[in-house]
C-alpha cells in the first residue's frame, strides 16, 4: 500500500546542509501497525511528514495506493491528505470553540458529504471511541484522554487509507496512555492501517513492526510473530 524508495530529505542551516533522511526505503502493507522509534534528530518526524504528504522529499519515490505522490503539487497533496490520511497529534489540535461533534466533522467540510451524513458519522465514531456521552462537550470540558479520543474519531471520519499517529500518548498519564493504545490496537484489529511515531519502548510494543531510525537512516526493524 505504501512504498518508499531511496527517500532523501535535506535542510539548510546557514551554509550547512543537514541530511534528515538518507536514502530510506520501506514498504508498509495494508492493515499493518508500524511504529517508528529513534532519538531526536533521527529522522522519524521528517519521515512522518513525508508519509502524511505534509512535506515532499528531495529525492526518491513515494507511492501511496499505486499513485506516485512525491512530486505532486500542494493542491494535489492536500486532496491526498483529505482522502487517504487521518492524523493524530500529541497536542490533539482540537478547535476550542467547537464541541466534540464539530471537531470530528471538520475534515468533511470540503467533501461532497451532506451535513446530515457528516453529523451521523461524527456521532457514530464518537460513540465507537467511548464518548457517546460527551458529544456536545467542548475540549476544555474534557480530560486529556477524552480529547485524544475526539482526535482519533476525527482522524477516522474520512475513512482514511492510513492513520498517522505522532506521539499519540505524549501528553497523557500511563493509565490513559494504555487506554488510548488499546483503542488503537482495536482499530487495527478491525482493519485500520496505523503508522505511529513514539520515543517510548512500551508504546512501540503495541505495534506489529518496530522500525528504529538513526541519523536519517533505518537502523533496524523487528516484527512480532
From TrEMBL:
> Which Pfam families does the entry mention?
ABC_tran (PF00005)
Xref: Gene3D superfamilies: P-loop containing nucleotide triphosphate hydrolases
Which keywords annotate this record? ATP-binding, Nucleotide-binding, Transport
- Domain ABC transporter: residue ranges: 2-225
Gene Ontology terms: cellular component: plasma membrane; transmembrane transporter complex
InterPro entries xref list: AAA+_ATPase (IPR003593), ABC_transporter-like_ATP-bd (IPR003439), ABC_transporter-like_CS (IPR017871), ABC_transpr_LolD-like (IPR015854), MacB-like_ATP-bd (IPR017911), P-loop_NTPase (IPR027417)
Membrane spanning segments where?
A: none
- PROSITE patterns, alphabetically? ABC_TRANSPORTER_1, ABC_TRANSPORTER_2
Any one GO molecular-function label of the UniProt entry:
ATP hydrolysis activity
- Kindly indicate where the leader peptide sits in this chain: none
Q: Which family does it belong to?
A: Belongs to the ABC transporter superfamily. Macrolide exporter (TC 3.A.1.122) family.
Task: Return the PANTHER family for the record.
Answer: ABC TRANSPORTER DOMAIN-CONTAINING PROTEIN (PTHR24220:SF692), IMPORT ATP-BINDING PROTEIN (PTHR24220)
* Name of the molecule in the record: Putative ABC transport system ATP-binding protein
Please name the source species.
Answer: Marisediminitalea aggregata
Amino acid at each position: 500500500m505504501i512504498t518508499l524508495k531511496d527517500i532523501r530529505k535535506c535542510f539548510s542551516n546557514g551554509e550547512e546542509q543537514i541530511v534528515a533522511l538518507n536514502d530510506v526505503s520501506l514498504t508498509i502493507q495494508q492493515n499493518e501497525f508500524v511504529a517508528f522509534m529513534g532519538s531526536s534528530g533521527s529522522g522519524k518526524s521528517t519521515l512522518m511528514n513525508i508519509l502524511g504528504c505534509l512535506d515532499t522529499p528531495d529525492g526518491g519515490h513515494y507511492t501511496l495506493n499505486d499513485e506516485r505522490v512525491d512530486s505532486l503539487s500542494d493542491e494535489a497533496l492536500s486532496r491526498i491528505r483529505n482522502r487517504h490520511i487521518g492524523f493524530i497529534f500529541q497536542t490533539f489540535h482540537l478547535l476550542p470553540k467547537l464541541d466534540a461533534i464539530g471537531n470530528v466533522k471538520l475534515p468533511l467540510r470540503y467533501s461532497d458529504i451532506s451535513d446530515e451524513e457528516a453529523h451521523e458519522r461524527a456521532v457514530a465514531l464518537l460513540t465507537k471511541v467511548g464518548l457517546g456521552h460527551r458529544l456536545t462537550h467542548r475540549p476544555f470540558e474534557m480530560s486529556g484522554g477524552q480529547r485524544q479520543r475526539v482526535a482519533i474519531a476525527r482522524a477516522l471520519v474520512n475513512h482514511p487509507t492510513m492513520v498517522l499517529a505522532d506521539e499519540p500518548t505524549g501528553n497523557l498519564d500511563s493509565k490513559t496512555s494504555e487506554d488510548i493504545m488499546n483503542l488503537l490496537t482495536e482499530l487495527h484489529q478491525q482493519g485500520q492501517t496505523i503508522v505511529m511515531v513514539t520515543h517510548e519502548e512500551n508504546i512501540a510494543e503495541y505495534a506489529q513492526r518496530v522500525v528504529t531510525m538513526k541519523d536519517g537512516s533505518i537502523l533496524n526493524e523487528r516484527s512480532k510473530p
